[in-house]
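Slide 14.
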Amino acid sequence: MTPGAYDAVVVGGGPGGFGAATWLARYRARVLLVDGGEQRNRWVDRSHGYLGDDPVTPRDLLGRAGRQLAAYPEVEQRAAQVRHCARRPDAMFAVTLDTDAEVVAARLVLATGVEDAFPEVAGFFEHYGAGVFHCPTCDGYETQGRDVVALGWSAEVTGFALSLLGWAASVTVVTDGRRFEGDDGQRAELARAGVAVLEDDATELLGTRGDLRALRLRRMGELPCQVAFFSIAHRPRTALARQLRCVLTPEGYIEVDAEAATSVPGVYAAGDVTPGLHLVQVAAAKGAIAGVACARSLRGEGADPDGWQDRLPGYSSAMTEPNRPAMVPDAGRLDELETEIDEIRGRVDDPLGQGDAHFIDGGQPADDRTDDLVAPPDPEA
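Slide 15: predicted structure.
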């Protein structure tokens, strides 16, 4: 290991990044967590469904995670953006921050998340995270008995709007002046479900934060609603993954295996930047998987993915090396252990020379005699 280098740099301070850094620390790896403060839900008042913390504000959840992580002496946290990542000739990673500082690491965990495209509607950020949301799974439960607007125009807004009907009293699709891109079948499906599609401009959200009243449309006037969702576009933050030439899925997420390993040896990914559900609890779980797999890779435990063998920097520290002779004894030590076992066997077999006790070989007593201290008594005796 290069002197002064980190075992791992975790990029991103959301649930995925904190999950990865926590488990790396618990494996005594030296970790740097770099966070630029651009979590997707940073405007949200409450996150839901996190086991043991439902609801919770993202600020409180991540604040506690940061304080708990700081208790591990192996971890350093920096508020910065990672500008560039590259593999060095020695197979270590050079990580350049927007402060122009450069750090070196044996492994990387990318937990960079996603960013949303927002509708250009007056009052949007006054209501975003209180009465306006992007995720029906996360916030649909709170729409029960309410009138909901779904802002969007792509074909995907069909499923988005229909899923909201599982909670809301009514759902109306507003395309913000675009033509709805769904086909005739999707239009008919929405109509059968009672979902109107209004191809009108959304100009303003009305009401105060936490008390949304209506969406003003350019031609049709005020459309009453108590909750609004938007489904426009979101983009995984994969700039660093592209620099490292990680394979991406057709949808643009970082492709990972079951252990959160990417196609690039030594690089792991976790959280919303990988495929799957975008939920806080799922992101934290993905981070835990990435952190444990990364830590075990540093220790030389487990099985690295195909193509990673002999392409990772070696690891040498008090965390692993002193344990290896004991874990894998050499031939001389095995002979010593065998002699010690024979001596113990002799003492236990007949400690007083009276034949009162003996060793059990292969799970069975050598004859009909047993000793309660060596084998359990026969329940039928």
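Speaker note: DSSP finds ten helices and 19 strands in the chain.
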